[in-house]
Write a structure and sequence with these properties.
Helix content: 40-55%
Shape: elongated
Strand order of the largest sheet: 5-4-9-11-12
Number of helices: 20
Distance between the termini: 45 Å
Largest sheet: 5 strands, antiparallel
Radius of gyration: 28 Å
Number of strands: 17
Structural class: alpha+beta
Length: 551
């Protein structure tokens, strides 16, 4: 814990000056009208073309007099402070008793981090010779904004249990579940019957470094950019990690003869015991958090927004570290439970089972960049080997053995279907033989990587939906097959101009778009209405929950 504290302290002291406080806005009446004063901190830049004012149905943006702009690269805008006058004749012309002044703007720091676009509403009132503004309640905050507010306004005794609870909830998500067989396979591969203390200790090491990865990656993403997880989804990185799974699987198969040369097996086994084994478990825990589950959820996004806006890497990193412990708590019970296992002949079958699970996870990782039909073919072959190794063609005497053989026959049938489907070019696990399905109209998204085009759509279209996705994102796949395929969701989104932004490549262009809209990782859905951000949904959302929002 002392090392972690000093790591967080290092981030806090060395990077705290890289971001500045966002601008503040003051307004006061004058005989000339109303003066809006934008107070900008050092090295904060206010975009000229993002500064929009609307009074009722009338756009005032092009009717105002602006000071001579300054330049930041090719962008026009302002540093330091900006006084913008809403002239009295203009207010007289468009004033009504229920007038609402809509203001939107966006600022960036010279370090390259862009703050989220701000959308503010004011009630315009007239008293004698003066006009006054009164802030109106804004749209309800997104969940990540509420979590950001929790970090900003609450004390540490409330923050720590809150983020631990968030972690417990996230431990049941598809992004975390694969870590259960990974840890189980590591412990089984190191030898069953190691004792509950040893098994629990290895689980503790795994969870500690998993939580550390979330904390450090979160702080790094907030300060240094948004592409760390995407970088770790490169084919070469995924291939190396899949190879590690294969090596651990080989340890599980060691009872079935020398799959590898004896010297190589001895080398792998020697590095998986005691002291050196701790290092391997630590590395697996650290990289599993970044590679196995490259998803984002509201608690994670809220902490990242807090770090980015407040400069407080220490508190934000601590919150992420505690959240990682919450996510890893079920893994501690898994390790403790495996520690109660006693050696015996039956342990050979358990090791084989986890060996095949590891091989399946290796294929799952490769599926992020390998063609779907090849993956289907590989899973079919793996399934055939699985049922043979698990004893499908051995005799069955007891009733339990007969149930086991019946289950293995079903696995064999599905594996053969996957194999045939892969040969025929199918890519769907749910329908490998391409049975005819009732066709339905899917939502059509326009793919775009042009920031200017995206903003043009937001300004000109009545309703716009931005969908940030990536090929390596687990939640994105769930949204595609469960959320967007729901007929009720399709009906609700029919009036939206739908734009898909693919972040798979993780290039400079994608990083710029992510910074522009404060997206740290996919999936993210951002809804705009008449140029104003109405809702931002981070992570997976069920169709019923979405429909309740009334978007």
């Amino acid at each position: 814990m002392r090392i972690v504290f000093f790591l967080f302290l290092l981030f806090h002291t060395s990077l705290a000056q890289s971001l500045k406080e966002p601008l503040t806005l003051d307004f006061y009446p004058s005989e000339q009208g109303i003066v809006l004063r934008f107070n900008l901190a050092d090295e904060i830049f206010l975009y000229r073309d993002r500064l929009k004012l609307k009074l009722g149905a009338q756009d005032l943006s092009d009717l105002l007099s602006y000071p001579a702009p300054q330049f930041w690269g090719d962008e026009e805008g302002y540093f330091d402070a900006l006084d913008l006058v809403l002239p009295r004749p203009l207010l007289d012309a468009y004033f009504s008793p229920r007038s609402v002044l809509e203001l939107s703007y966006q600022a960036c720091s010279k370090s390259g981090l862009c703050y989220a676009p701000q959308f503010l509403n004011f009630s315009l009132q007239k008293a004698d010779k003066f006009y006054t503004l009164s802030p109106l309640a804004q749209h309800s905050k997104s969940q990540e904004s509420r979590i950001q507010s929790l970090l900003e306004n609450e004390s540490l005794p409330l923050i720590v249990p809150s983020f631990f609870f968030y972690g417990l909830l996230l431990s049941l998500t598809p992004c975390t579940l694969p870590m259960i067989p990974i840890l189980s396979s590591i412990i089984i591969a190191k030898g069953g019957g190691m004792g509950k203390k040893r098994a629990f200790f290895l689980s503790l090491i795994y969870v500690f470094f998993m939580a550390l990865a979330y904390a450090l990656a979160g702080v790094g993403a907030s300060f240094l950019g948004f592409g760390l997880q995407a970088f770790l989804q490169k084919p070469i990185v995924l291939s190396l990690f899949a190879l590690i799974f294969v090596l651990f699987a080989i340890l599980c198969f060691r009872d079935f003869g020398p799959v590898l040369p004896a010297k190589f097996q001895a080398l792998i086994q020697s590095r998986s015991h005691r002291g050196r084994g701790v290092l391997s478990v630590a590395l697996m825990g650290f990289f599993s958090a970044l590679i196995i589950g490259p998803c984002i959820a509201a608690p994670l996004a809220g902490a990242l927004l807090y770090i980015a806006s407040s400069k407080d890497a220490l508190l934000g990193g601590l919150a992420l570290f505690v959240m990682g412990w919450g996510m890893g708590t079920p893994l501690l019970f898994v390790g403790l439970g495996l520690g109660f296992l006693r050696p015996g002949d039956w342990m050979g079958g358990v090791r084989v089972l986890f060996g095949f699970i590891l091989l399946g996870l290796a294929l799952w990782m490769l599926s992020r960049f390998v063609r779907g039909d090849y993956i289907l073919l590989a899973y079919g072959i793996l399934g055939v080997f699985f049922v043979v190794f698990m004893g499908l063609f051995e005799g069955a005497c007891s009733r339990m053995q007969k149930f086991k053989k019946a289950f293995l026959i079903l696995v064999l049938a599905y594996s053969l279907a996957l194999f045939v489907g892969g040969l025929c070019g199918a890519k769907s696990f749910s329908n490998p033989l391409n049975f005819a399905k009732k066709s339905k109209e899917n939502l059509v998204f326009e793919n775009s990587q042009n920031l200017a085009t995206i903003w043009e759509k937001i300004k000109n279209e009545e309703r716009v939906l931005l969908y940030f996705t990536a090929s390596w994102c687990v939640y994105c796949g769930l949204l595609d097959v469960e959320f967007f395929d729901d007929e009720r969701v399709s009906a609700a989104l029919v009036d939206y101009e739908k734009i898909k932004i693919d972040l798979s490549e993780n290039g400079a262009l994608q990083a710029k778009i992510m910074q522009e809209f404060q997206v740290f990782a996919p999936p993210v859905l951002i809804f705009f209405e008449r140029g104003r951000q109405r809702e931002k949904i981070t992570g997976y959302i069920r169709a019923d929950e979405f429909l309740e929002k009334g978007l």
